[in-house]
Each structure stands twice: as C-alpha cells, then as structure tokens.
Amino acid sequence: MLYQFAAPADREGARHDASHAATIVGSPGWDAMEDIFKAITLWLATGTEAAAALIIGLAAIEGTVAALALFLPGASRGGGVGEPADRKEEVRLRLGRWLAVALEFELAADILRTAVAPTWNEIGQLAAIAVLRTALNYFLQQEIDKAQSRNTIPASVASSAVPGR
Question: Does residue 22 surpass a pLDDT of 80?
Fold first, then answer.
C-alpha cells in the first residue's frame, strides 16, 4: 500500500499520532485510477505486439516474393548483387533485419506487461521470455553483422581493383 503523509493539524508542530500523520491511499478513486493505468498499459502492450506481428507478416511476404523472384529466368543476372548465392543471402539478411525489429517490439511489449504483472510467477515468466527474445535478437544481429562484413569490400581493395588508379 502507498502512504500519503498529511500536514500537521495545528501550527505549533504538536506531536501527532500515526493515525493522523499518514493516511492510506486505497480509496475507491485511487483503485479506479490504478485499474485505468493497468488497462492502458495492457492495451499498449497488445498494440505493440500487434505491430510486431504486422512487421513479421510483411517481412515474410517481402522475403517470399524476393525468394521466388530468384527462380525466375535471368534473376541471377543484374538487379544489384551479382551472384545467385549473394542474392539469396541478401534476401535472408533483409528478412533477418526485419525479424530483429519485430523482436525489439515484442521485448517492449514484455516490458510493458511486467509493469502490471500481479504475481512473482508471472513476472518470472515474462522475464524468461524477455531473456530468450534478447538472446535471439543478439545472435540474429551477430549473424547479420558477420554477413555484412563478408560482403563489404575494403576501400583499399576496391580502389586497387579499378583499372587506371
């Protein structure tokens, strides 16, 4: 329970007993406001999870279309990255980046839910889910960074490969 400390009843600073010095903030108005804040927080968490689901769905559609395009005749020529393996990796990395964004949204929803979790058991479950999502996001980002470093050509190598320089 929360306590709200009241000002002294008289101006001489006389000694007051505990029943006058502190009043418990547990009135019906306070409970209603607390319920409203919990409802808003849960609504925000649900909205954040919906945004994550939308991101995952759109990323899956984009990845599927890009992957299917690789099967079309002439897809291995032109269109940005050269080799078919490079194009496949680019599709995979793009999907991975979107999944990392969606995982961040899911983690944000978990954080919102911990603010209103009524029991330690629920807090523990949310914490375990948050740890798993953080670990997934970390390893996904490591894979993305590793693939980007393989695909990045150092400037010194690129300038020496160009004739006339």
Answer: no
